[in-house]
Amino acid sequence: MANRLHSAADYATIAVVSALLNGPALEPPSMLRFPAAFSLWLIFPILALAADWPQFRGPDGQGHSSATGLPLTWSESDNIAWKTPIRGRGWSSPAIQGEQIWLTTALDDGHSLHAVCINRSSGAMMHDVEVFTPADPGHINAKNSYASPTPILEGDRVYTHFGIYGTACLSNDGRVIWKREDIKYNHGHGPGGSPVIWNDLIIFNCDGTDLQFMVALDKNTGQDRWRRDRDHVDPERKSGHLDFALAYSTPLVIDVEGQPQVVSATADYVAGYDPRTGEEIWYSSYVGSSNIPRPVYGKGLVFVSSGYDNPVFYAVRVGGHGNVTASHVVWSTKKAAPLNPSPLLLGDELYLISDKGIATCLDATTGKQHWQQRIGGSFLASPVSAEGRIYLLDEDATVTVIAAGKEFKKLATNKLDGRTVASPAIVDSAIFLRTDGFLYRIERR
């Protein structure tokens, strides 16, 4: 498929070169130290560079990791390789390539927006770059941040996105290559959805109360390549008579019979677009707005949640054209549908975690429920998977680990200090988890 990012092997090679060229860290972190583990990373760097997590929800954008040897249990005093403080507030997930971990954060109540880079092996802060300085950041939802979209890493470039505050390309040594601050709309609750890369384009959603569109920028220059207005949002929403026409979802690029499509969920419908031109290929309608979960794809189906206030979860068959609402919706369910966390597809099973902490396992092709279990807690982060396990992270920084399968089995419950809504990243033998104060590397000791 033409839009794929580099392979794990490519990233490993890039990472080795990058580690040699980037030089020393800017400053040592204030963190827990474990010299024996750190020595092993120095002696065998290739072992720590075998895979990456270059975008929101990982290499395929759907929460899957090939990592092995992960810890099942951890705490503030157990199985923590390092713990690095992060200034400000941000809910972007860790984006990882080679020896670099990139995050975004906001200082001074959103007046100073930064991209920060942390060394993957040591946890040392490598770069801290002020990218944008909004004069009037405005109001956002109390659970959101001014730095919530996750960066994308590709080669020696770092693509950061702060919604209406700006989009920028940096080099992986911290230099700003280009930036845009003129893509404006009323985002309501603040920045949310992350961008996606396809070939030489960076694509993201812009769904506000006033304007609703998608945009593709040339990733090398930042210039517009195409814009696509949303054509099927209920006119009552656009007029302000029916809630807001907001959405905060992240697009997903998929392959349909050898052709690329970018799937995007917005208020009142989900659609597939040609990433080359922005032309709409198909759409399927529902009722809802403020959509946050990223769609997932498999079994020839796109899985999507309709959004606030009463979510319905849908499975839509791809391959159609035009309005496919009546012909291609295979199944739907209202029971414990998520408002915020993205779904997770593993084999024949689809896993959901609702905002109120109800986990559900469904047959992906039929929607038949295998099990449903109350986990407890409040969930905004999206689940991730590795080694046949599913990691469910709640707002109190508690991770419930369950076994993938048609029968519910809880394996562990792990608590860290602080609060979080940032989805974890899993690479090699480590879990990278961000809270409101720190970035953790969780690994067996």
Give a nutshell description of this structure.
The chain has helices at about 10-20, 35-45, 235-240, 325-330; strands at about 80-85, 95, 100-105, 110-120, 125-130, 150-155, 155-160, 165-170, 175-180, 195-200, 200-205, 210-220, 225-230, 250-255, 260-265, 270-275, 280-285, 295-300, 300-305, 315, 320-325, 330-335, 345, 350-355, 360-365, 370-375, 385, 390-395, 400-405, 410-415, 425, 430-435, 440-445.
Characterize the structure shown:
Residues about 1-50 have low confidence and may be disordered. With about 450 residues, this protein is mainly beta. Strands 14-15-16-17-21 form a 5-stranded mixed β-sheet. It has a 4-stranded antiparallel β-sheet with strand order 1-33-32-31, with no helix packed on it. A 4-stranded antiparallel β-sheet has the order 2-3-4-5. The two termini are about 40 Å apart. It has helices spanning about 10-20, 35-45, 235-240, 325-330; strands at about 80-85, 95, 100-105, 110-120, 125-130, 150-155, 155-160, 165-170, 175-180, 195-200, 200-205, 210-220, 225-230, 250-255, 260-265, 270-275, 280-285, 295-300, 300-305, 315, 320-325, 330-335, 345, 350-355, 360-365, 370-375, 385, 390-395, 400-405, 410-415, 425, 430-435, 440-445.
Annotation field: number of helices? 4
Shape: globular
Structural class by secondary-structure content: mainly beta
- Main beta sheet: 5 strands, mixed
| pLDDT averaged over residues | 90
| Helix amount | under 10%
- What is the distance, rounded to the nearest whole angstrom, between the alpha carbons of the first and last residues? 39 Å
- In total, the number of strands is 33
Percent of sequence in beta strands:
35-45%
Enumerate the spans where pLDDT stays under 50 for 5 or more consecutive residues: 1-50
**Which strand order do you get reading across the main beta sheet?**
14-15-16-17-21
Gyration radius (Cα, Å) is 20 Å
